[in-house]
């Protein structure tokens, strides 16, 4: 019974997300739209906690409530107190937190599947784990980590800590090589399921996130944040696949696709091709050396 | 050959899910269509808060962790904490941005 009520809550929450996002596209209804999405989120979170079936030790509930309490207080106070001019970097920071959350979920699930010290002394074979589960864990980890590391760099740039774009020589090629490593190690993890490999992959993905955003100039930051925003959406959607959880899927994919389109629209509004924003310093570098 | 077969098995088993994903992608695109430039940043911020729904997964992980698995509990605690920051911070900051709009 509880299970069905939870499904109903997830359906309502998904509809509220869509309606809320739609209303945010119009200046008159935007603020209300945001509140509607927030109501959907509250319902989804409360439902997940209170309608869970099965015996749960009270220590786990205490930890969950403590984490939510601390997160709410810090999130609320920072969002309320920050100066208006510093809002973009704060959005980037919050986006990074979501990415980190997705990456952590993947890490924990990986350890659940392949425990370091299994109770019966029998180690899990990769072949016994479903392909879909492994793909979701690996994708969630990679996309979440890239989004986290990239958002933190974007935050530091907007913050003024990293004022000038840092450009390693031939950084586009370096990034491509690292990306190739990320893909290669992901495939290796898929076939071996080894603990050391997932931490290598985590490190590489974080490094890729840092190097992806480092060379990008300050004016292009909103576009990059929007792109990383859609990355986190996709990472959340992989979590939804993993647990067969529909509200995570709708929320994640909605942000993934809306965020990608928004990134493109923002580029158009700035009159900058998206490829130039991401790999862009190519052009500026060439013109600088020509001049 | 076996890989190809397992790929199609996966596809067949998750057929509904795949339809669901495709339709959701179109909903996302449709929802953003024709948004005025001034609303780009608040919309990004609002979408940012919505992907905080990943916290549902973090809570789920916690609920399915045994109480003596300290590593998972610690990681899960931080996952829920960071997810909450994303959700609460995201919605509050979006509200502040849109509040500024009204006054203009």
TrEMBL record, chain B:
<keyword id="KW-0812">Transmembrane</keyword>
<feature type="transmembrane region" description="Helical">
    <location>
        <begin position="70"/>
        <end position="94"/>
    </location>
</feature>
<keyword id="KW-1133">Transmembrane helix</keyword>
<keyword id="KW-0997">Cell inner membrane</keyword>
<feature type="transmembrane region" description="Helical">
    <location>
        <begin position="17"/>
        <end position="39"/>
    </location>
</feature>
<dbReference type="GO" id="GO:0050661">
    <property type="term" value="F:NADP binding"/>
</dbReference>
<keyword id="KW-1003">Cell membrane</keyword>
<dbReference type="GO" id="GO:0008750">
    <property type="term" value="F:proton-translocating NAD(P)+ transhydrogenase activity"/>
</dbReference>
<feature type="domain" description="NAD(P) transhydrogenase alpha subunit C-terminal">
    <location>
        <begin position="18"/>
        <end position="103"/>
    </location>
</feature>
<keyword id="KW-0521">NADP</keyword>
<keyword id="KW-0520">NAD</keyword>
<dbReference type="GO" id="GO:0006740">
    <property type="term" value="P:NADPH regeneration"/>
</dbReference>
<keyword id="KW-1278">Translocase</keyword>
<protein>
    <recommendedName>
        <fullName>proton-translocating NAD(P)(+) transhydrogenase</fullName>
        <ecNumber>7.1.1.1</ecNumber>
    </recommendedName>
</protein>
<keyword id="KW-0472">Membrane</keyword>
<dbReference type="GO" id="GO:0005886">
    <property type="term" value="C:plasma membrane"/>
</dbReference>
<comment type="function">
    <text>The transhydrogenation between NADH and NADP is coupled to respiration and ATP hydrolysis and functions as a proton pump across the membrane.</text>
</comment>
<dbReference type="InterPro" id="IPR024605">
    <property type="entry name" value="NADP_transhyd_a_C"/>
</dbReference>
<dbReference type="Pfam" id="PF12769">
    <property type="entry name" value="PNTB_4TM"/>
</dbReference>
């Amino acid at each position: 019974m509880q299970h069905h009520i939870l499904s109903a809550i997830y359906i309502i929450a998904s509809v509220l997300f869509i309606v809320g996002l739609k209303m945010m596209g119009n200046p008159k209804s935007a603020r209300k739209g945001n509140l509607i999405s927030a109501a959907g989120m509250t319902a989804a979170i409360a439902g997940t906690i209170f309608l869970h079936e099965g015996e749960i030790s009270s220590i786990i509930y205490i930890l969950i409530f403590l984490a939510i309490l601390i997160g709410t207080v810090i999130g609320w106070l920072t969002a309320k107190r920050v100066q208006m001019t510093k809002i973009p970097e704060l959005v980037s920071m919050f986006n990074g937190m979501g990415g980190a959350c997705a990456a952590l979920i993947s890490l924990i699930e990986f350890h659940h599947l392949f425990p370091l010290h299994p109770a019966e002394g029998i180690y899990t074979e990769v072949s016994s784990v479903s392909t879909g589960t492994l793909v979701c864990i690996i994708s969630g980890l990679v996309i979440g980590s890239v989004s986290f590391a990239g958002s933190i760099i974007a935050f530091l740039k907007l913050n003024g800590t990293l004022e000038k774009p840092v450009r390693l020589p031939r950084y586009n090629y370096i990034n491509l090589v690292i990306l190739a490593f990320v893909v290669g190690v992901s495939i290796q993890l898929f076939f071996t399921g080894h603990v050391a490999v997932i931490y290598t992959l985590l490190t590489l993905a974080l490094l890729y996130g840092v190097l992806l955003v480092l060379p990008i100039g300050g004016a292009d930051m909103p576009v990059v944040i929007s792109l990383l925003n859609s990355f986190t959406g996709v990472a959340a959607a992989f979590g939804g696949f993993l647990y067969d959880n529909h509200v995570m899927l709708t929320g994640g994919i909605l942000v993934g696709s809306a965020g990608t389109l928004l990134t493109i629209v923002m580029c158009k509004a700035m009159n900058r091709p998206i490829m130039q924003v991401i790999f862009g310093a190519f052009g500026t570098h060439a013109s600088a050396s020509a001049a | 050959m076996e890989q190809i077969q397992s790929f199609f098995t996966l596809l067949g088993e998750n057929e509904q899910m795949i339809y669901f994903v495709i339709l959701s992608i179109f909903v996302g695109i449709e929802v953003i269509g024709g948004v005025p430039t001034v609303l780009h940043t608040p919309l990004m911020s609002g979408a940012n808060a919505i992907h905080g729904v990943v916290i549902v997964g973090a809570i789920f992980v916690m609920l399915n962790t045994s109480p003596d698995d300290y590593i998972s509990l610690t990681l899960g605690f931080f996952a829920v904490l960071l997810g909450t920051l994303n959700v609460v911070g995201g919605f509050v900051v979006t509200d502040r941005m849109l509040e500024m709009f009204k006054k203009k």
